[in-house]
């Protein structure tokens, strides 16, 4: 009986289990309705592209992309949408997911604030919001997340924290990353970190941490067991080292790069014997690598680059002997080691990456280095190597990346040596002195993926035979060579290029048809390539992948398409297109989202109306200058929120300047010159980053705005010449400390020149830091550790100097000039203007200025161009003119100057027209002589005789004055002073008696002498 009962009970249990499993299976994918609605509300706040999160529909939310649920309760426990590249905001509906244990939304484009209610998610173990654009203060409510083990808020560049005290409540926290979060206002951050005993990984890179003082270093909590510490890219000094060294005895990863560590590497590091990763790069460390590095036997990666380390190269390498079997990465680039040759690295059996750039290494690349047993990457950038030494059989080498750029390799392309390295995937020989033709032996490098031979002296032809074996090639750069591409129109490349740079090579005159086979082409530079064709239709079908396109300086004709295909790249907002200096025509099309667009020096017509309907939130650089564009500008510029440089110069644009220009808070440079704009300048008070304003040669009117001097502190160039401005020069311009170029010429400005111009620091201080107008519109990365910068350009400006208009580009940031010519200025030239010792050009011509030329004008020793013509200046030219040794252009004509022109080689070299219209001037180089310089020709025989002649008009005057002073100085005194007169005559009486007696005695003696001689005879 009991056995039957037992069997019965077992059957009942089995039936119940089956029913339970069936029920669980039936309900397994059913999520909680409240949480499903919260997820949908969260999705509504996101900005999604096309098919993103398409699975988020229906009732089964546990099957949605990125969602995980608990198998029993069906609550959402995991939300992982990392790197899905969506925008929008982090909606507070996320707080409805009360059972979340992991929330990962990293590397998207989320904006706005972190909801305070996120602190209510008490079951959270992992929170990762890194790599977004969140711009809030870190909510202190995060302190409620007592179960949190991982917190990553790093790389939200606009996030800030005022204190870190809330961290002390996260007792289970083991991983903390606040990299690039603004912590500049956090004072006691060290104490806050010390209160997290479970912390093993800490990342505070780029947080703006400042120098700490010994008093601010807290008592250490010995329970802290950090293994990874990153404090790189801050402003820390060596005072942080005691805390770093003592905070943990088990550190394996330490990054203190890009700080202000000075002097030698401290000896306290000798106890860090567990270090596997050490980065001290980009500091100011001096001396040699210390001896105690011999104890760091577990080192795998060591970065000491960009310091001031010195001593013998070989000695420093010997200090790493204990790690020679485990060291994988070594970077010693950019230091000051003594030896100029590469030491022996043969004992480093595990070395995979070696960086020895900028070490002044000369000679040839030794074969021993190429054939290190495990070396994969070798970087010898910026040295003085002139050759490569590779043994006959290079097949034993596994090196895949070889960078010898910026050296002195010369002669023919050394591919006969390098092509023996069969494993090469990346070869960079750019910026050398290689010559000769492009060799077919390059095809032997069948594994080659990236080849950079730019900026050499190579010539010859690239044909199909050379490229036929390079099936893995993705990058080819032959820029700045004399190479011609000879590829047939029906040639099908065996590779898929991602980057092609062939600027200054010959690809034309026809547009290269073989480009149509590169469906994934992102970077294309075929500028200066001799193309005089139109764009084929297929090219624009391929444009959806193009991020960087440069076809400038060709003769490409025809019109652009009316629209472009949507881009299929996640970095569409970084796209740069450059069409400058071609023969393109027609109206402007509707462009896709771009970072930079250059269309200058073409023949485009029509208006800019389509620009207002395009999506240009990311547009940073826009150059439409030197075209035939017309009409009025629409008031839609508030949509261009990222714009830095705007150039609409040299068109036929008219009407008023739109008020919405004043909303361009990021703008740095505006060129509207040589158009037909009218009205007044709209207020640009929000454009505090402006460095250059050029509204010249229009029909603008009104007065020079006062707000320019109050709200534009960075202004360097102000050019409004050729307009109809009236009124005085506002004294507020003197507040512009950075002002280097001021051009108010050809207006109707009245009043006097402000005395306060001497307050402009950039014009009074020769040591003032001057920055050029250099921009990078596009940066591309193609392999790890190497950064390739494309789209570099200089802003430019036309300045009137030395009597002509000249365009300044690379040197614009160095120019200093003031041009107030062709106005109605009155009064005198202020003496204070001579304090502008950094001024190169000064033009005050065609005004109504009076008075004298400032006597201290010679203090302006940097002057190269001076024009004071067509005024009413009078008086003599100051003698200090002779101190202006750099002066190469001067015009003082048509004034009322008089007197002698100061003598100096510089002044005498000018043409007589320089002084025309000043009837009172005399001397060289004028034909008339000054009074006192007139010498009769018959008395002048040669230069030596003229120099020795004493009897001149000045001599007679001096003689007469000397006689007058001497005579009356003596005789007048004797007449007035009776006592002096008695003494004077008594002196002469005594003197006459003495002379008489002396003569008598002398005569008597002589007589006696003659008598003796007569007696002897």
Would you write up a description of this structure?
15% of the residues lie in helices and 23% in strands. The protein is an alpha/beta fold and 1017 residues long. The protein has a 33-stranded mixed sheet, with no helix packed on it. An 8-stranded parallel sheet has the order 35-37-39-41-43-45-47-49, with no helix packed on it. It has a 4-stranded mixed sheet with strand order 1-4-6-8. Helix 14 crosses helix 15. It is globular.
Layout of SSEs?
Blueprint (H helix, E strand, L loop, with lengths): L1 H26 L5 H12 L1 E2 L19 E3 L6 E5 L6 E3 L12 E3 L4 E4 L13 E3 L4 E2 L15 E3 L22 E3 L11 H6 L6 E3 L24 E3 L10 H6 L6 E3 L6 E3 L12 E3 L4 E4 L13 E3 L4 E2 L3 H6 L10 E3 L21 E3 L6 E4 L1 H4 L6 E3 L4 E5 L12 E3 L6 E3 L2 H4 L7 E3 L4 E5 L12 E3 L4 E7 H4 L7 E3 L4 E5 L12 E3 L21 E3 L11 H6 L5 E3 L6 E3 L16 E3 L4 E5 L8 E3 L4 E4 L14 E3 L4 E5 L12 E3 L4 E5 L12 E3 L4 E4 L12 E3 L4 E5 L4 H4 L5 E3 L4 E3 L14 E3 L6 E2 L9 H4 L9 E10 L2 E9 L2 E5 L2 E5 L8 E3 L4 E2 L15 E3 L6 E2 L13 E3 L4 E5 L12 E3 L4 E5 L4 H4 L11 E3 L20 H6 L4 H24 L1 H39 L1
Parallel strand pairs: 3-5, 4-6, 5-7, 6-8, 7-9, 9-10, 10-11, 11-12, 12-13, 13-15, 14-16, 15-17, 16-18, 17-19, 19-20, 20-22, 21-23, 22-24, 24-26, 25-27, 26-28, 27-29, 28-30, 29-31, 30-32, 32-33, 33-34, 34-36, 35-37, 36-38, 37-39, 38-40, 39-41, 40-42, 41-43, 42-44, 43-45, 44-46, 45-47, 46-48, ...
Antiparallel strand pairs: 1-4, 2-3, 52-53, 54-55
Helix pairs in contact: 14-15
């Amino acid at each position: 009986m009991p056995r039957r009962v037992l069997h019965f009970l077992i059957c009942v249990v089995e039936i119940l289990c089956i029913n339970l499993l069936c029920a669980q299976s039936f309900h397994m994918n059913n999520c909680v309705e409240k949480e499903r609605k919260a997820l949908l509300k969260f999705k509504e706040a996101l900005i999604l592209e096309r098919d993103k999160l398409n699975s988020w529909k229906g009732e089964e939310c546990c099957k949605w992309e990125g969602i995980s649920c608990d198998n029993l309760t069906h609550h959402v426990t995991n939300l992982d949408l990392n790197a899905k590249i969506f925008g929008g905001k982090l909606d507070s509906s996320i707080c409805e997911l009360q059972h979340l244990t992991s929330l990962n939304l990293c590397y998207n484009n989320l904006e706005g604030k972190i909801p305070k209610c996120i602190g209510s998610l008490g079951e959270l173990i992992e929170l990762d919001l890194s790599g977004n654009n969140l711009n809030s203060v870190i909510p202190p409510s995060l302190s409620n997340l007592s179960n949190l083990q991982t917190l990553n808020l790093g790389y939200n560049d606009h996030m800030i924290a005022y204190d870190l005290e809330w961290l002390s409540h996260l007792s289970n926290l083991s991983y903390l990353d606040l990299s690039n979060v603004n912590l500049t206002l956090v004072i006691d951050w060290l104490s806050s970190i010390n209160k997290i005993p479970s912390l093993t990984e800490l990342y505070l890179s780029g947080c703006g941490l400042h120098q700490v003082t010994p008093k601010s270093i807290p008592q250490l909590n010995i329970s802290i067991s950090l293994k990874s510490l990153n404090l790189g890219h801050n402003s820390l000094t060596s005072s942080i080292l005691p805390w770093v060294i003592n905070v943990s005895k088990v550190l394996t990863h330490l990054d203190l790069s890009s700080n202000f560590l000075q002097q030698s590497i401290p000896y306290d590091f000798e106890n860090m014997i567990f270090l596997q990763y050490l980065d001290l790069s980009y500091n100011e460390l001096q001396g040699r690598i210390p001896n105690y590095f011999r104890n760091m036997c577990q080192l795998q990666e060591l970065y000491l680059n960009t310091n001031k380390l010195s001593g013998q190269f070989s000695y420093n390498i010997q200090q790493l002997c204990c790690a020679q079997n485990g060291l994988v990465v070594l970077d010693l680039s950019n230091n000051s080691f003594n030896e100029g040759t590469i030491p022996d690295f043969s004992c480093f059996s595990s070395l995979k990456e070696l960086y020895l750039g900028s070490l002044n290494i000369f000679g040839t690349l030794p074969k021993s280095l190429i054939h290190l047993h495990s070396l994969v990457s070798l970087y010898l950038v910026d040295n003085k190597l002139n050759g490569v030494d590779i043994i006959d059989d290079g097949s034993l080498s596994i090196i895949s990346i070889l960078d010898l750029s910026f050296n002195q390799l010369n002669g023919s392309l050394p591919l006969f040596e390098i092509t023996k390295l069969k494993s090469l995937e990346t070869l960079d020989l750019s910026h050398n002195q290689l010559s000769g033709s492009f060799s077919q032996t390059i095809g032997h490098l069948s594994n080659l993926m990236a080849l950079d031979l730019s900026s050499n002296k190579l010539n010859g032809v690239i044909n199909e035979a050379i490229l036929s074996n390079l099936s893995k090639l993705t990058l080819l750069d032959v820029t700045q060579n004399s190479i011609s591409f000879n590829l047939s129109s029906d040639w099908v490349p065996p590779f898929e290029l991602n980057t092609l740079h062939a600027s200054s090579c010959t690809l034309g005159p026809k547009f290269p048809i073989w480009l149509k086979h590169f469906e994934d082409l992102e970077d294309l530079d075929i500028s200066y390539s001799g193309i005089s064709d139109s764009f084929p239709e297929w090219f624009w079908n391929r444009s959806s992948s193009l991020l960087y396109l440069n076809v400038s300086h060709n003769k490409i004709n025809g019109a652009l398409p009316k629209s472009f295909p949507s881009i299929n790249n996640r970095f569409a907002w970084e796209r740069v297109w450059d069409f400058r200096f071609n023969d393109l025509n027609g109206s402007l099309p509707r462009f896709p989202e771009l970072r930079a667009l250059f269309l200058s020096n073409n023949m485009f017509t029509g208006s800019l109306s389509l620009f207002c309907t395009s999506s240009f939130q990311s547009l940073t650089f826009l150059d439409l200058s030197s075209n035939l564009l017309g009409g009025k500008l629409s008031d839609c510029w508030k949509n261009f929120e990222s714009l830095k440089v705007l150039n609409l110069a040299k068109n036929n644009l008219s009407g008023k300047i739109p008020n919405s220009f004043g909303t361009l808070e990021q703008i740095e440079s505006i060129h509207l010159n040589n158009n037909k704009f009218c009205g007044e300048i709209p207020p640009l008070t929000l454009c505090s980053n402006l460095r250059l304003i050029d509204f010249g040669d229009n029909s603008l009117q009104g007065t020079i705005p006062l707000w320019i001097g109050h709200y534009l502190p960075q202004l360097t160039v102000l050019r409004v010449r050729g307009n109809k401005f009236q009124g005085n020069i506002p004294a507020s311009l003197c507040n512009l400390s950075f002002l280097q170029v001021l051009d108010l010429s050809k207006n109707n400005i009245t009043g006097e020149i402000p005395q306060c111009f001497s307050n402009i620091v950039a014009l009074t201080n020769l040591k003032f830091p001057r920055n050029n107008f250099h921009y990078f519109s596009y940066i591309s990365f193609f392999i790890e550790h190497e950064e390739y910068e494309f789209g570099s350009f200089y802003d430019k400006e036309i300045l009137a100097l030395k009597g002509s208009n000249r365009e300044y580009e690379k040197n614009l940031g160095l120019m200093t000039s003031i041009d107030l010519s062709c106005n109605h200025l009155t009064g005198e030239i202020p003496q204070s203007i001579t304090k502008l010792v950094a001024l190169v050009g000064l033009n005050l011509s065609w005004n109504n200025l009076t008075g004298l030329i400032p006597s201290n004008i010679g203090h302006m020793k940097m002057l190269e161009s001076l024009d004071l013509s067509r005024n009413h200046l009078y008086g003599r030219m100051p003698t200090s003119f002779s101190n202006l040794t750099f002066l190469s252009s001067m015009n003082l004509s048509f004034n009322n100057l008089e007197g002698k022109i100061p003598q100096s080689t510089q002044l005498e070299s000018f043409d007589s027209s320089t002084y025309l219209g000043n009837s009172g001037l005399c001397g060289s180089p004028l034909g008339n002589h000054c009074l006192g310089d007139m010498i009769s020709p018959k008395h002048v025989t040669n230069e030596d005789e003229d120099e020795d002649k004493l009897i001149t008009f000045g001599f007679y005057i001096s003689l007469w004055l000397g006689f007058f002073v001497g005579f009356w100085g003596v005789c007048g005194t004797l007449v007035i002073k009776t006592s002096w007169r008695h003494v004077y005559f008594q002196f002469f009486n005594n003197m006459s008696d003495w002379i008489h007696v002396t003569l008598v005695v002398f005569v008597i003696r002589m007589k006696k002498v003659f008598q003796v001689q007569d007696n002897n005879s």
